[in-house]
Specification:
heterodimer, A: alpha+beta, five-stranded antiparallel sheet, B: 277 residues, alpha/beta, four-stranded antiparallel sheet, 11 helices, 10 strands, disordered N terminus
Chain lengths: 533, 277
């Protein structure tokens, strides 16, 4: 008895520890930490957030890890510094310290000196703080005004250029396939397309040059900051994402900051090789992947389960199939990934490409013959369908014989009995299988890595461009994001918070989806529940 | 023609004086079994049963557990088809039509021969939908017809007054006795000719049992009823004819009064008086 209790306790405490670590580390990431000014015995001053405290087990020396930011100023481009306790003369938390979140190079910690530049409104009698915030707003607004249309033009041009290049590829492909007497017309078309491409290129070059010129102008709008050592650094205002002064913020201001950061996390694109910014494309990819998986695997699994449970006559065959189905659940997921790559991507995707886009295959840019969200979701569906099959069969088997016979004795056919009585009654059980399948699918990363997940997807698989669903596109995924940011990123310390946050978010999404499904199931169950006599 | 109307005609056709005494009158046989044999794989569960079931009479099948009475009952609407490895030989004639004919429409047969089971399990639907189920799957769409048939059936199964205010609530909220009456209502809603009852009271308390027995007495005016029961007193109370089966063989069949008072065979007497079984 005690062994079973101990085993359960061990299990539970492991789960609790895991949740605790994820929650504690994930939740405090966005809380604005105080910035400490650390003065060393040798006179060097450092500004930064104290992120960790460690004791050397041999010497009992205590050291602090400081997030000092200012990466571009450090000779080794380090964000983090370790300082031994005995080297520290004093630690203070002075007011007036700025933390800047930047598009590049991570955070900057320092004190404001002045703002300057052609687009910065005259300071007048405003204080430094106000000048900075109004300056940044004004510069970024103006930049959007000037640069926005240029960027849109460029995007349109590059889209056209892409299309023209594809057209050229198609024409060239056709030329190889058609007899020589038809070449002349193709050659004319080719020449036309090529001249168009050159023209587009020229236009695009013009806009790029203009963009560069404008950007160079905006780059002279800077805020000059002074770091701990007193060194002044001009920081381009376009580069600034967010400014805050944690040592001067009250609780409310901090809360506001926290909420804003979470908003950014949920709705923005990632920055700085995914270690900063938002996770929107990854969240979107994850949820869409699971939905696609659900609509492919659930009907398939339910139908297969119904056949196995109700129609299959041969007992030995059914047993064999059942064993196979159960064993399918035990195959390592990477094997499914490889199968998905071979069967869906290269097999079916390759075939589709050959039928529909032979010219793209010829130039080596396959559409469906490369990883994409469709193939990834089908692979996941394959991986989770056994769970649905087994639970459907079990649910059907659990229905009392009286129900089945009662319906048949009233002159119902087998199909009517299934449709009107058995399937509604088994639906909660099917939902259970579906929930298990969904939870499993949400946590899988390995099979996705070779069937279409990417570190950074330029476009979402669902957008406003016809035909809206772009199931051939590659996508981002929270699980892969954890792996990528945590283990493939060059800056381990800087990416750690993002790993925790992503993990927490993935857990929350899985929790949300499964609890929605459970709620649905309970509602169904209430309707179909059998009370024992 | 609507089902309700048909029922009305049947009602008027059945004379109210037809009670238990009518058992002795020569009623026409509706169902005739001739040398009916049934095998479960190797073992023979029915060993050549030949008997008649009479129209608008209650026939009770009695006998010890495993004697084949339920099996016989389930032969009459081919419910044994659902069990694998069952082989039936011999003949069952329903109004002269061969039931065991493989080309017979089983669906149609089951509509004519309804069945009530030992454990009443309503469908997880509303009371109304439970009763209307048979009509719906038969393709009856007319709301008025369904409404009427549901009310008729519930009235006949003596459930109407208890459930008329909550027809659209789940049938699962009813009590065990009500479940059984609901299943009877469900079976008679499609207006069968014969109602088979497989130990309909064995899971019920005495009060519910009395209600079901009274109900059977009412229903025999319109339907031919064949009931399997373990309870001697029940067989004596509700049936006109009694058949005693033992180890797959029909030992004796006759008017209930005669079987219970002057059995012809010694096995019957032993069983009825409780010497075995």
């Amino acid at each position: 008895m005690w062994a079973t209790a101990a085993a359960l306790t061990a299990m539970l405490s492991l789960v609790v520890v895991l949740l605790y670590v994820v929650l504690v580390n994930g939740l405090h990431v966005f809380w604005p930490a105080y910035v400490a000014e650390v003065t060393r015995v040798d006179g060097e001053a450092l500004l930064g957030e104290i992120t960790r405290r460690a004791t050397n087990p041999d010497t009992d020396e205590v050291s602090f890890q400081l997030k000092t930011g200012n990466r571009e100023l450090d000779p080794q481009r380090q964000d983090f510094r370790w300082v031994k306790e005995k080297d520290i003369r004093s630690i203070s938390y002075p007011t007036g310290i700025y933390v800047l979140e930047r598009v590049e190079n991570g955070n900057y910690y320092g004190r404001l000196e002045r703002v300057e530049g052609p687009h910065v409104p005259a300071a007048g009698d405003r204080s430094g703080d106000e000048a900075l915030s109004s300056g940044v707003t004004a510069v970024q607004q103006k930049a959007a005004e000037y640069l926005g249309p240029i960027a849109r033009n460029l995007a349109a041009l590059s889209h056209q250029l892409q299309e023209t290049r594809e057209a050229i590829a198609t024409l060239q492909y056709r030329k190889t396939r058609l007899p020589g007497d038809q070449h002349q017309r193709l050659d004319e078309q080719l020449a036309e397309a090529e001249s168009r491409a050159t023209q587009l290129k020229k236009q695009s070059d013009y806009w790029v040059a203009l963009q560069q010129k404008r950007l160079a102008e905006f780059r002279t709008d800077v805020a000059v900051f002074k770091d701990a050592s007193g060194k002044s650094t001009p920081i381009e205002m376009l580069d600034i994402v967010r400014i805050y002064q944690p040592n001067d913020m009250g609780l409310l201001a901090k809360l506001g900051h926290y909420v804003k950061k979470i908003g950014e996390l949920l709705w923005d694109n990632p920055r700085e090789s995914n270690t900063e910014g938002g996770l929107f494309p990854a969240i979107f990819g994850t949820v869409m992947l699971i939905f696609l998986m659900a609509i492919t695997c659930f009907p398939l699994g339910v139908l297969a389960g119904i056949y196995l449970g109700e129609y299959a006559k041969d007992r030995h065959l059914v047993r064999l199939v059942r064993i196979a189905v159960n064993n399918l659940a035990g195959i390592p997921s990477i094997v499914y990934g490889i199968f998905g790559l071979g069967f869906f991507v290269y097999g079916i995707g390759g075939l589709i490409d050959q039928w529909i886009f032979p010219e793209r295959v010829a130039v080596g840019s396959p559409t469906f013959g490369t990883g994409g969200i469709l193939w990834a979701s089908l692979t996941l569906g394959l991986l989770t369908v056994p769970v649905v099959i087994v639970s459907t069969e079990e649910a059907l088997r659990a229905i009392p014989r009286g129900i089945r016979e009662g319906s048949l004795a009233l002159g119902a056919t087998k199909y009517q009995t299934l449709l009107h009585v058995l399937v509604p009654m088994a639906s909660p059980g099917m939902m259970t299988g579906f929930i298990l399948a969904m939870a499993r699918a949400a946590g899988e990363v390995a099979p996705l890595m070779i069937t279409g997940v990417v570190k950074l997807a330029p476009q979402l698989p669902l957008d406003g461009d016809f035909p809206y669903f772009h199931l051939d596109r590659k996508f981002m995924h929270l699980g892969f994001h954890i792996y990528d940011v945590g283990f493939q990123s060059p800056n381990v310390e800087a990416s750690k918070p993002m790993v925790y946050v992503t993990t927490l978010l993935l857990l929350l999404i899985v929790l949300l989806m499964t609890s929605t499904a459970i709620w649905l199931r309970n509602r169904m169950r209430k309707r179909c529940q059998l009370r024992t006599l | 023609m609507s089902i309700a109307l048909e029922n009305e005609q049947k009602l008027s056709a059945a004379t109210p004086s037809e009670g238990h005494t009518a058992a002795h009158a020569a009623a026409s046989p509706v169902v005739q079994t001739r040398d009916l044999r049934l095998y479960y794989g190797q073992s023979e569960a029915l060993k050549g049963v030949t008997m008649d079931f009479h129209s608008n009479q209650v026939t009770a099948l009695i006998g010890p557990s495993g004697c084949g009475k339920s099996t016989l009952l389930r032969c009459l609407n081919r419910m044994n088809d659902l069990i694998d490895e069952v082989l039936v030989t011999g003949s069952i004639l329903l109004d002269g039509e061969e039931v065991n004919d493989k080309t017979l429409d089983v669906i149609e047969l089951r509509r004519r021969v309804g069945m009530v089971f030992q454990r009443a399990v309503p469908f997880p639907k509303s009371i109304y939908e439970n009763v209307a189920y048979g009509l719906r799957i038969a393709g009856v769409r007319d709301r008025k017809v369904v409404d009427e048939a549901v009310e008729q059936s519930l009235r006949r199964s003596a459930l109407w007054d208890e459930v008329k205010d909550r027809l659209h609530e789940s049938a699962l909220g009813l009590s065990g006795g009500q479940h059984q009456r609901l299943c009877i209502a469900r079976a008679i809603a499609v207006d069968p000719e014969i109602v088979l009852m497989d130990e309909p009271c064995s899971a019920l308390d005495p009060r519910s049992t009395t209600r079901i027995e009274d109900l059977i007495g009412e229903l025999r005016r319109q339907y031919t009823i064949i009931i399997v029961t373990h309870n001697m007193q029940q067989a004596a109370r509700v049936s006109d004819y009694t058949a005693f089966l033992y180890e797959g063989e029909l030992i004796e069949v006759g008017a209930t009064k005669q079987v219970f008072t002057k059995p012809e065979r010694k096995e019957t007497e032993d069983y009825i008086t409780g010497r075995f079984g």
